[in-house]
Amino acid sequence: MSKEWPLWEIFIRSQHGLAHKHVGSLHAPDAEMAVNNARDVYTRRNEGVSIWVVRAADIVASSPADKGALFDPSNSKVYRHPTFFPMPEEVKNL
Amino acid sequence: MDHKVNYLLRLGDNALILSQQLSQWCGKGPALEEDMALTNVALDLLGQTRMWYEYAAELEGAGRDEDALAYLRDAHEFKNCLLLEQPNGNYADTLVRQFFFDAWHYFLIEALTRSSDARIAAIAEKSLKEVTYHLRRSGDLMVRLGDGTELSHARTQAAVNELWMYSGEVFAYDAVDEAMVAAGVAPAADQLRAHWLAHVGEILAEATLVMPPADAWMQSGGKQGRHSEHLGYILAEMQFLQRAYPGAQW
């Protein structure tokens, strides 16, 4: 077993109704301590209502080389983008 | 000195001396996460110190403010328990000291929320969330270090054995403590001690650590101002500025 603590990615929900947002990463021996550490490192100024921790090794990421295949085909399909609906000013966080 | 003032100073001194000790880890923690966690705890305790001192100074009415209480008293006037002036040592030493303190502090503060003194109850209420987290964190770490590697287990067990004799002073009530119990200000010792032993026993078992006997001989004297030489060094560093440049401010 490695002597280094594994890396954890930290997600914090800043308020109810919003999604958890990635805020950074930290090291911790296990999930419980990762939550404790996240509290100390990332929520010292009243930032959140909920914390998620995910082992960085468990995140499967797309490869930059696949960028073309994954993302480019949508560029030419303007009808997929909901840019034709005017949003009322009052609606926040959408 | 009035019993209540004395009792408040004991609460404040415990928090201040531990806070000062923890802040010495700032920038030297074994990991960035631990460094921040320890300094967070140090700041929480400093905040609590100020509330206890502020109330003590008011009751005392001798024209001393919180700064005078922190910076202008000598070692024999400090009433912190001996546990808190024990050296930071290695990380296990710091952590076991913290855990022994947190377990007592949590049950004490929880009981003080029902104090007959409304101001004390309010300060306890304000501190309870912080103290709850402190105990959770130090307990979690005890389990990780105790049930961790061979080295972390050995060091944590050594720290438990070494610091055990300082863990009982908080339950050794004298006339000051008893007066507070009689007035409904503070909780009785036996009830606190039962909670402490049960919780510490549970965490030590989970951490695969051996708990020394509950009836072992316990060191005391700190509350009455009889300290080890460690406190002198702590105060020398903490009070240097005010002693060298009286009244200095920024």
Q: How would you describe what is shown here?
A:
- The complex is a heterodimer of chains A (94) and B (250).
- Chain A is of the alpha+beta class and 94 residues long.
- Chain A has a domain at 7-62: Phenylacetic acid degradation B (Ubiquitin-like (UB roll)), CATH 3.10.20.520.
- Chain A contains two helices and three strands; from the N terminus they run E-E-H-E-H.
- Chain A is flat and about 50 Å long.
- Helix content of chain B is 67%, strand content 0%.
- In chain B, helix 1 runs antiparallel to helix 2 (32-60), helix 2 runs antiparallel to helix 6 (118-146) and helix 5 packs across helix 7.
- Chain B is mostly helical and 250 residues long.
- Chain B has helices at 3-23, 32-60, 66-71, 82-85, 91-112, 118-146, 150-163, 175-182, 189-206, 229-244.
- Chain B has a single domain (3-244), classed as Ferritin, core subunit, four-helix bundle (Ferritin).
- The interface between A and B is medium-sized, with 15 and 14 residues.
Short structural description:
The complex is a heterodimer of chains A (94) and B (250). By secondary structure, chain A is of the alpha+beta class. Helix content of chain A is 18%, strand content 21%.
Topology summary:
The complex is a heterodimer of chains A (94) and B (250).
Chain A: E1 7-13, E2 21-27, H1 31-42, E3 50-55, H2 67-71
Antiparallel strand pairs in A: 1-2, 1-3
Chain B: H1 3-23, H2 32-60, H3 66-71, H4 82-85, H5 91-112, H6 118-146, H7 150-163, H8 175-182, H9 189-206, H10 229-244
Helix pairs in contact in B: 1-2, 1-8, 2-6, 5-6, 5-7, 5-9
Task: List the keywords.
heterodimer; A: 94 residues; alpha+beta; Ubiquitin-like (UB roll); 3 strands; 18% helix; B: 250 residues; mainly alpha; Ferritin; 10 helices; 67% helix
Helix fraction of chain A, binned, reads: 10-25%
CATH superfamily of chain B: Ferritin, core subunit, four-helix bundle
Tally the beta strands of chain B. 0
CATH architecture of the domain at 7-62 in chain A: Roll
CATH topology of the domain at 7-62 in chain A: Ubiquitin-like (UB roll)
Rg of chain B, Å, rounded: 18 Å
CATH superfamily of the domain at 7-62 in chain A: Phenylacetic acid degradation B
